Amino acid sequence: MQSVYKVEMEGITKTFGGVYALKNASFRVKPGEIHALVGENGAGKSTLMKILSGAVQMDSGTIRIDGQACNITSPKVSKDLGVAVIYQEFMLAPHLTVAENIFIDRLSGKKPVIDWRNLKKQAGELLDKLGFGDIDAGMPVADLPVAYQQIVEICKSLAKNEKILVLDEPTAVLTFSEIEKLFGLLRSLRAQGIGIVYISHRLDEIFELCDAVTVLKDGMLVKELNIKDTDKKSLINLMVGRELSTLFPERNATIGETLLEAKHICAGRMVDDVSFSVRRGEVLGFSGLVGAGRTETMRAIFGADKMESGQVVYQGKEVLLKSPVDAVGRKIGLVPEDRKNQGVLIEQSIRVNTTLTSLGRVSKMGIIKHKKDKEFSKKILAELATKYASVEDNVSSLSGGNQQKIALAKWLAADCQCMILDEPTRGVDVGAKAEIYKNINKLAESGMAIIMISSEMEEIINMCDRVMIMRQGKIVGELEKNEMTENNLIKLSMGVR
């Protein structure tokens, strides 16, 4: 008798150093189903999928594929069973062509001669079948937009006839239109009977795309539900294990005088005559498609990239910000989009990271006072409700949400007056998002001016007092609070009237 499920994982337990990553967890996916796997960071989602992919071996439990019990001891065994995992960091060879990437296994095969023309033809046929015939199979992958690189990654899996597809945060760097293309492809694959596991913190996407959802918490199964039988609030409550009264805090900040004004900023190809201002107590949003120039604008203002022309007026006076040191001296902070590589020193201690921009407050005659440094770190971290075991632990030991709090903490320690936040909640779970929103609100209420770049429209609409919309390096619109709707944001971002 054929199994109802494509994949069944039952009673999965895994420990690392005596700590449970998974405890009697279960997960299952039907053929022709898009099944969301959700939970806070540390809930066990990644470990469960690593076990399915063969990257990690379970301590105990049972895995069945198409009803047959199997022992997945390596990634090769997993692939041979038809499992493909598409990670956020693509496993593509950038300087090889699309066709070469799709059929890369053939390049290392036993055949001494490869029919390159046929390889390209077959890749083109596969792309065309999936609705992406506009992708040139002979083009180097490095020349493709990120969204199309993701399509190539999926095609590579389908070329091997895999029947189970696992996608980890697949829309993290995609534009609105690219997300729609990806969703169209996934719906097409669902219709072909492929079982799809969809891991995402973006609940709107889950309700738009998925058929079912499984919630994990603390390494254990909380509940499996049909999407039509739940709603966003109920799902959030299951994920965090408590009733989250509201994801977004009530905005009570008093908006004061203008703190920073940018006039006619030009920088490189991505920033063209950008002007805006932000006031004390205000959260000013920056919305737009990926590549619109938002990050580049803020890096130029912060002094991280060269500003070719324009003025920055700070506290009523023109200032020259030629480097981040100049910006920090003016009490301007930047929490970058790439948290792990640019926002924190990931393999340094929590204490070192927290006081990195305020060493003058914890040192005397150039010598750091260890006790004072430690106490000051703890005080700042407490203000952000940061969870950690010891300030001497490395930042890498923390969850994504707490790493983001460390990135915020160093600017709080420096008594920052203007904070630039670039995608502040990317890659963090819903519980951590709520805490970050609360902290942003608290900083605004203290009189700090906040500039927030975000690709999440819900975040912009609920957290910002005003929003500037960028497209192709220019400001193309400004919306007040009462004008902010998803429709208005999309139209301005895409240049639709």
From TrEMBL:
UniProt xrefs under InterPro entries: AAA+_ATPase, ABC_carbohydrate_import_ATPase, ABC_transporter-like_ATP-bd, ABC_transporter-like_CS, P-loop_NTPase
Q: Which residues cross the membrane?
A: none
Q: Which residues form a coiled coil?
A: none
Under PANTHER family, the record lists:
CARBOHYDRATE TRANSPORT ATP-BINDING PROTEIN MG119-RELATED, D-ALLOSE IMPORT ATP-BINDING PROTEIN ALSA-RELATED
GO cellular component, alphabetical, reads:
plasma membrane
Any matching Pfam family: ABC_tran
Read off the PROSITE patterns from this record. Answer: ABC_TRANSPORTER_1, ABC_TRANSPORTER_2
Where in the cell is the protein located?
Answer: Cell membrane
How does this protein sit in the membrane?
A: Peripheral membrane protein
Q: Where is the ABC transporter domain?
A: 7-243, 250-497
Q: Which UniProt keywords apply?
A: ATP-binding, Cell membrane, Membrane, Nucleotide-binding, Repeat, Sugar transport, Translocase, Transport
User: Which GO molecular function terms does the record list?
Assistant: ATP binding; ATP hydrolysis activity
Q: What is this protein called?
A: Ribose ABC transport system, ATP-binding protein RbsA
Q: Signal peptide span per the entry?
A: none
